[in-house]
Amino acid sequence: MNPTGIACCLFAVVLSATAVSQNANAQNRPFVANYDEAKIPPYALPDVLGDVKSADDWPAKRAEWRDLIAAEMFGKGPASDAGGDVSVRSQLDDVAILDGAGFLRQLHVQIAGETVRVAMFLPESAKQQPVPVFLGYNFAGNHTVFDHPAIELPTSWMRNIDDHRARDADRGKSSSRWAIEAMIRAGFGLVTIYYGDIDPDFDDGFENGVHKVLGKPADDEAASIATWAWGLSRVLDVLEQVDVVDAKRVAVFGHSRLGKTSLWAGASDQRFALVISNDSGCGGAALSRRQIGETVWRINTSFPHWFCGNFKKYNEQESKLPFDSHVLLSLIAPRPLYVASAVEDRWADPKGEFLSCVEADPVYKLLGTEGLPTTEMPPVGESQQGTIGYHIREGKHDVTDFDWQQYIRFATRHLK
Ligand code: GCU
């Protein structure tokens, strides 16, 4: 590595160590992330196919893997009918957007006692014929994804705001992460929800959000990521009743912790027609055994509420995991899956995100699909698209127009 590379490495290590010392939950022990491929402990990945010889054998094996990943990592359940019927309580008046190219429709949906605000940005054509949509959580409220005064603010607990209340001043502040105009011009809608409407993202002992009704999970039961994934399925229940959306063509999308969530949503609910993981990293698409960047111990220590109690057994014991992220990705087969990374997002281990796609490919091929068209990590900025899609782009941990251009092209090919 050249001196600039070494300096960058040192800088990244110092940065991540600083981030740890600022995190109250991770203070008990310093953590220095490894970014050196040469220091990856030798590992063998669990054989995803095992004795599966034909496509007919896969559903039983898939169910075994799914139950194991549920019990040991994300937590089982909740049952699809936990918390009672999901119902639309009210629908706000439609509002034209983008000079009439599309419209905004907002719903209040009751999910396990919580009022969830659903914002749908749809092409005008949806009024004639239901359209395919991207469905994904946002981090800071529906009003942050698009700057429009009609978009309601969440009333639930907000992260990163002093009084934890949503602010009018934040309208549109995350719009660069949501290429709504490009989606609408391509004939897709976007359905989005603030993830805190389902479960506020802090270690609250599972007392808030839908847990008020669902109760505190046991060690093998759904922690926050699985609960968010369940929330996406409940929104899909609602979309099945909405005439402007084609619920058979819903691409579930998520960035970062919400990319871990979209993967588990797609693995748990086969009604999702396509799955997108943007920079999902540790506990998402990245292979845990590589221990590059964030590790199982680090994620469980910083965010104890994300994964179930049983997952803590694997702190610094990645080799004992009975699966790895390639098995998680395989659960989505044969449905189209897109995994994306960013060069500067080393904390999420881009190479580990790519390798799990390579390792999931045999399942996709066995099921008669094209799988991933390459076994070599594509050059920066090049999108490889088969039934599995992958790219690594320039830049940092984020969602950009480049990412959306690829997702729209991939979804156009598979859902239109
Ligand atoms: C932290 C965390 C990651 C997560 C990310 C995010 O960086 O360590 O695992 O993906 O937050 O959700 O933004």
Summarize the structure.
With 416 residues, the chain is α/β, with parallel strands linked by helices. It has helices at residues 3-21, 58-74, 180-185, 211-214, 224-239, 257-268, 296-302, 325-330, 350-366, 401-415, and strands at 87-91, 95-97, 102-111, 114-123, 131-138, 189-194, 245-255, 274-278, 337-342, 384-385, 388-393. Helix 5 (224-239) packs across helix 6.
Molecular structure report:
It is a single chain. The chain has 416 residues and is an alpha/beta fold. The protein has one domain (55-415): Rossmann fold, CATH 3.40.50.1820. The protein is 29% helix and 17% strand. The chain is built from 10 helices and 11 strands. It has helices at 3-21, 58-74, 180-185, 211-214, 224-239, 257-268, 296-302, 325-330, 350-366, 401-415; strands spanning 87-91, 95-97, 102-111, 114-123, 131-138, 189-194, 245-255, 274-278, 337-342, 384-385, 388-393. Strands 1, 2, 3, 4, 5, 6, 7, 8, 9, 10 and 11 form an 11-stranded mixed sheet that branches. A hairpin with a 4-residue loop joins strand 2 and strand 3 (102-111). Helix 5 crosses helix 6. The longest helix is centred in the N-terminal third of the chain and has 19 residues, at 3-21. The radius of gyration is 20 Å and the shape is globular. Mean pLDDT is 94; it is low at 1-25. The structure holds alpha-D-glucopyranuronic acid. Alpha-D-glucopyranuronic acid is lined by residues 256-257, 281-282, 294, 299, 302, 347.
